[in-house]
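As a representative case, the lines below give one protein's residues and fold tokens.
***
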Amino acid sequence: MSSKNNSTNPCLKANHVCDKAQYEEASLWEKLKLNIHLALCPCCRNYTKNNKKLTEVIKSSNVKCMDKTCKEALKAKFDKALKEQEIS
């Protein structure tokens, strides 16, 4: 196992801030540091570009989500089938 902690990897941090910025959860300071990192790192620029494309596709999609009642009924059926599987 590597002795280097992944949370200290600057690219992992930059990607995390990119994800936070996507959902408008990143602070101004985080965004500033991200932009500096992006100026220097082509891999993270590519990650950010792909992340933006993904966000645009999801926002423009016409996906209909299951309502809460249907989700609960489906979960109950799943749990029942899982219990029956465990008994067998």
User: Anything to note?
Assistant: The chain is about 75% helix and 0% strand.
